[in-house]
């Protein structure tokens, strides 16, 4: 089956998606590249930096997560970070070339007393000219509206896997709870960042189920993070079998074909991928990464190795979309120019 029209569709059947997964690898990648080039600069990759603003002791029982209080990991729980410290980290991320700052909290959902601090963090990050993203757990409509009013651009809330496999991974909240939060985020006018985790022992039908749920939403998530499970000792999934790497690349390619206008993020798990594997993911249509030595609590590749990889592949960091005004954008461009020689992404000798 040929993905001959790159216009977004919302009516994919499991059989059609399975047929994509069963294509010869080169045919699948060719289709994904063709779709990618119709909507994006094929050599631009969006760069986000992640910060854990509240770490550990989470009441939810997600089996993959080092931050769940149900899992016995070697992680020190921390209180909500001070707004000033968060903004210092955001400034540092900006100076290193990130265009989006993503803040994550190990909460089931934010409490009313947390909201004023979270709102101040959003406002401060936006004032720096960065895009702001948060992942704080479930949101009701009022909470989503408050974050949107504060200027939050993206809200990350993952479905993680198929509806069928979900119950084997999390029991403290339902798939429908997640879909409700996503609807509240969509209603608030924020952009949706929603994806999942591969390599948790799921089957192909679960990867198909996840992608179909995302692709058949009335509006595709603007950002689709595809995480490879980071196996953390002490979590129930710490000894699960590795996913075949080509199946990870195939899932990226199918996500690209199903959601042609979305950014597909090669998300957690890059630390265990070599450069060639990451290059295949970019070829399959991934066009966003997390940059910075830490994800939330686990390691991510060093800044220097990402700079080298981008240089080797001729990839440029994508410039920020939708700056609030032209002057603001000019300031940002000038800063990028000023930092060119020291920034991670530019080879000063080029
Ligand atoms: N507590 C909030 C929630 O779950 O909605 C936000 C933070 S949570 C850590 C954000 C996402 O990180 C999860 O939905 C999951 O997809 C991803 N994640 C967590 N642990 C992971 C791991 N070990 N490997 C890969 N992805 C992981
Ligand atoms: C997403 O899909 N992946 C990020 C982000 N959204 C918040 C989180 C990855 C976490 C990996 C495990 C850790 O570092 O704790
Ligand atoms: Fe808590 Fe989020 Fe981790 Fe689940 S994924 S345990 S909700 S921090």
What's the SSE blueprint?
Blueprint: H1 14-21, H2 25-39, E1 44-54, H3 83-95, E2 100-105, H4 115-127, E3 131-135, H5 141-150, E4 154-156, H6 163-166, H7 175-188, E5 191-193, E6 196-198, H8 204-215, E7 223-228, H9 245-258, E8 263-266, H10 275-283, E9 288-290, H11 303-313, E10 316-317, H12 326-338
Parallel strand pairs: 1-2, 1-9, 1-10, 2-3, 3-4, 4-5, 6-7, 7-8, 8-9
The structure holds S-adenosylmethionine, 6-(5-methyl-2-OXO-imidazolidin-4-yl)-hexanoic acid and iron/sulfur cluster.
Residues 50, 66, 104, 135, 156, 158, 195, 225, 227, 230, 267-268, 295-298 line the site of 6-(5-methyl-2-OXO-imidazolidin-4-yl)-hexanoic acid.
Keywords:
single chain; 350 residues; alpha/beta; TIM Barrel; 12 helices; 10 strands; 13% strand; binds iron/sulfur cluster
What's this model, at a glance?
By secondary structure, this protein is an alpha/beta fold. It is built from twelve helices and ten strands. Strands 1, 2, 3, 4, 5, 6, 7, 8, 9 and 10 form a ten-stranded parallel sheet that branches.
Describe it for me?
39% of the residues lie in helices and 13% in strands. It is α/β, with parallel strands linked by helices and 350 residues long. It has a single domain, classed as TIM Barrel (Alpha-Beta Barrel). Strands 1, 2, 3, 4, 5, 6, 7, 8, 9 and 10 form a 10-stranded parallel beta sheet that branches. Strand 8, helix 10 and strand 9 form a beta-alpha-beta unit. It is globular and about 50 Å long. The C terminus is likely disordered. The structure holds S-adenosylmethionine, 6-(5-methyl-2-OXO-imidazolidin-4-yl)-hexanoic acid and iron/sulfur cluster. Iron/sulfur cluster binds next to loops.
């Amino acid at each position: 089956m040929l993905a001959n029209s790159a216009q977004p569709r919302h009516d994919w059947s499991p059989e059609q998606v399975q047929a994509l997964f069963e294509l010869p690898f080169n045919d699948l990648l060719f289709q994904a590249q063709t779709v990618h080039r119709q909507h994006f600069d094929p050599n631009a990759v969006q760069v986000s930096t992640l910060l854990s603003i509240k770490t550990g002791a989470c009441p939810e029982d997600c089996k993959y997560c080092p931050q769940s209080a149900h899992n016995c990991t070697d992680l020190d729980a921390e209180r909500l970070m001070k707004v000033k410290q968060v903004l210092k980290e955001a400034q540092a991320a900006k100076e290193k070339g990130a265009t989006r700052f993503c803040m994550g909290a190990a909460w089931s959902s934010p409490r009313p007393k947390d909201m004023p601090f979270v709102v101040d963090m959003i406002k401060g990050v936006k004032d720096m000219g960065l895009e702001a993203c948060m992942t704080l757990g479930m949101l009701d409509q009022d909470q989503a509206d408050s974050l949107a009013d504060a200027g939050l651009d993206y809200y990350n809330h993952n479905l993680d896997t198929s509806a069928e496999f979900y119950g084997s991974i999390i029991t403290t909240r339902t798939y429908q709870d997640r879909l409700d939060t996503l609807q509240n985020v969509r209603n608030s006018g924020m952009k949706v960042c929603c994806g999942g985790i591969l390599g948790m022992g799921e089957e192909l039908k679960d990867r198909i189920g996840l992608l179909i749920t995302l692709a058949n939403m009335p509006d595709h998530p603007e950002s689709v993070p595809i995480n490879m499970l980071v196996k953390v000792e002490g979590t129930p999934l710490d000894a699960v079998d590795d996913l075949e790497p080509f199946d990870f690349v195939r899932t990226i390619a199918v996500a690209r074909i199903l959601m042609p206008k979305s950014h597909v993020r090669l998300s957690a798990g890059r630390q265990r991928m070599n450069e060639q594997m990451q290059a295949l993911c970019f070829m399959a249509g991934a066009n966003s990464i997390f940059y910075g030595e830490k994800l939330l609590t686990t390691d991510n590749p060093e800044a220097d190795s990402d700079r080298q990889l981008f240089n080797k592949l001729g990839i440029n960091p994508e410039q920020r979309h939708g700056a609030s005004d032209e002057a603001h954008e000019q300031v940002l461009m000038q800063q990028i120019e000023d930092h060119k020689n020291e920034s991670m992404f530019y080879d000063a000798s080029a």
